[in-house]
Amino acid sequence: MALGCLALITLALVVLSNLPSSGSPWPWRWQDLPAQPFSLSSPTGGALSVLPGTEAAYAAELLASAGTLGLGIEQAQAGRPWLLPTGACDSLEAALATSLSDGGGVTGVVATPCAGLEAMGIGAPVSYSKEGAATQPVAGSDLVLPLPAEGAEWMDLPPGWKAVARRAGGGVVLARSAQGITVASFDVVPFLRLLRQGDPGWANQDRDGIHGPKPNDLMPFPWDERVYVLPGSDLWVEFLWSLAGKIPRLWPLPSEAKSAVILTFDQDFALADWLDPLLARVELSGGEATLLTTAGTRQSVSAPLREAGGELPSAARLDEWAAWGHGVGLHPNVVGLSGPKEREEAIELFAAKHPEARVLRNHFCNWWGYEAMFEIQASLGIWMDLNYLSIEPRFRPVGFLNQAARPTRFQGRDGRFLPVLLQSTQVSDDVLYGEYPYSNGLSLPEAILATGEALDRAVALRVPLTFNLHPMIQTNEGAAFLDGLLAAAGQRNVPVISAERWAAHSWARLARSYGQPTPEKEPPLLRWIVGGDCSEKTALSPFAGGGCLAPVRQQQSVR
Predict the structure, then answer these.
(1) Phi and psi dihedrals of 529, rounded to 5?
(2) Domain ends where: 462, 481, 500?
(3) 55, 15: one domain
């Protein structure tokens, strides 16, 4: 009976796949970008000075991930806001003098507890210890920001200072002087890298006992649920941007819509006939997706290194997928191989069969070391990694395991940026619902409801959500969750896009933020302009007022 039902479902999906499509809904092709689309060097400046120090490069990367324009790693400049990261305290005195010489009208953010703050009348913060620490709601919103488990705070502020953010149940973690200088009680930038990339001290540890070491085993948990459901690292960047004076920005999304669904399918050895019907469903909704293929990799965890199998549709059908905007990325199976060298060789052999692949997620998100997989992907021309998957069975809603929805380049322990974007994945169907030991444990209707609630949060915060589905699961259940996701996105006017399109757009935004030359066929970008005369004002973030969106023309300066 079950097999008969599955056959009927599969037949229905096949019929659906044969319905005519009207062509890609996007006016630009991500395939037109060169294999190495952008090369980023130090940002050129013009609007915000990030003071030189050990964490200056990552501070700039965080701000660039939100589309901030005119970034420069430089000493404080007259008339220009500045941010002082960890390792730059020697520049504090000169930066304060620059701000005061401008009559106090230039804002500054001291994102580390410098000893020189005593000269401003504020003492050293005192230590606290609390797992899952978070702020009270900030800036008149209902949003809370994550804090270090081992941090510091001020219990009292001197005259002329006011609290900007407080730890829930504790003291002040951000304070602002009468001259407009904001100071933090802890090292903000390295904390945000820890949230996004994880703790290298936990490398090669299977901390949750599921499928071996994975990126989620690197994460500094636990949080409570009110933190988990928010992209706290992205919100910290937005908050810092607002405190620095709302520097010029690009709109952080690929269209005027207020969010985006990045949709991938892990093939997981499914037959080719099961793939096309699901993509046809996506096309009928006006969306596109990425298939992370297992065709050409090991088909079981016990297979030898060089064994390969699996299948894809015909070359003609793959061309039709590409014309629509779908992508085919990599889903290598290195589970069961004995060590890093074997795993690297297996991935390289697999990637050689798909030289045009630009995104990757390992089967079971198998991981080793800290930056090892990013180094491998960089050598293969991969644009974006998708292995950082939210696996957290203690919480039922859709959440942000690494507290981020927007991508940044991965920074190695030696300070190098590897030219691969780390894009976290918020939802996988096998994790969100079902009876797997790592599942959130939702029923299918509850999972669809949770998806809509998560999209509402994403729309409110102007961030994308990344979803990963499995053809086997979706076909077995008649694509009920896929249909629910597509309907929820459509109801909120949120586009459904491939990981490759998102990667191309994200690289273009970073290049503009860094002031770098852009390719001849740069993806279309939008500038967010404060105020302005437009029919419909659009808020950029919870910490910004209304503004207008305007297209950025090719080779146009956007400072």
Answers:
(1) -115, 125
(2) 500
(3) no
Judge contact between 360 and 377, C-beta under 8 A: yes
Instruction: Say which CATH number the domain at 437 has.
Output: 3.20.20.370
Query: Are residues 236 and 297 located together in one domain of the fold?
Result: no
At 222 the pLDDT is 63
Length of the chain: 559
Residue 327 pLDDT exceeds 70: yes
Tell whether 159 and 180 lie within a shared domain: yes
Number of domains within the chain = 2
> Both 160 and 128 in a single domain?
yes
Contacts 24+ apart (CB under 8 A), 502-505: 502/254, 502/260, 502/262, 502/384, 502/407, 502/423, 502/464, 503/30, 503/358, 503/359, 503/383, 503/384, 503/407, 503/421, 503/423, 504/30, 504/33, 504/37, 504/383, 505/254
Domain residue limits at 23: 2-30+256-394+413-500
Residues 336 and 460 in one domain: yes
pLDDT at 396 over 90: no
pLDDT of residue 554: 66
Residue among 341, 340, 359 nearest 351 (CA): 359
Residue 321 is encoded by which pair of tokens?
Answer: 């997928």
Same domain, 12 and 62: no
Q: Are residues 10 and 68 in the same domain?
A: no
Helix/strand/coil for 331: coil
Q: 28 and 524 in contact (C-beta within 8 Å)?
A: yes
Percent residues over pLDDT 90 in the chain: 81
- For residue 529, the model assigns a pLDDT of 92
Phi, psi of 190, deg, nearest 5: -65, -30
**144-176 residue pLDDT tens:** 999 999 999 999 999 999 999 999 999 999 999
Query: What is the mean pLDDT of the segment spanning 18-38?
Result: 76
Q: CATH code at 184?
A: 3.40.50.880
Reported as a single tens digit per residue, the pLDDT across 519-544 is 778 899 999 998 778 888 999 999 99
- Could you read off the pLDDT of 118-127 as tens digits, one per residue? 888 999 999 9
Residues 60 and 86 in one domain: yes
Dist. CA 410–CA 412, nearest whole Å: 6
pTM score, whole prediction: 0.94
State the Cα–Cα distance between residues 443 and 276, nearest whole angstrom.
26
Cβ atoms of 441 and 483 within 8 Å: the answer is no
